[in-house]
Amino acid sequence: MDRYTVTAEVWLHPGEAGWHFVTLPSQVADQVRARNEGSGKPFGSVPARIELGGSAWSTSLFPDSKRDTYLVPIKAQVRGREGIEDGDEVTLTIVLR
Question: Per the structure, how many domains does the chain have?
Fold first, then answer.
């Protein structure tokens, strides 16, 4: 299992849905991409387990072709439990499945 620890800013995607994300640093994104080349997952997504503070959940990393990286969605339930808002810097651990 590949495991990465990332510290980055939480940002709100503009639009109705109001999803919050963390953008992976390019070095981590390159490693994730290399590990998952040819996996054939929908939309190029990569299954992962995320650990943030006292919370952990299963999700997928989603490719962001504009930034040539991956995005980690941060669930509303987790943001509420951990007291996280748009613009906060968080440290999360990503475990690829």
Answer: 1
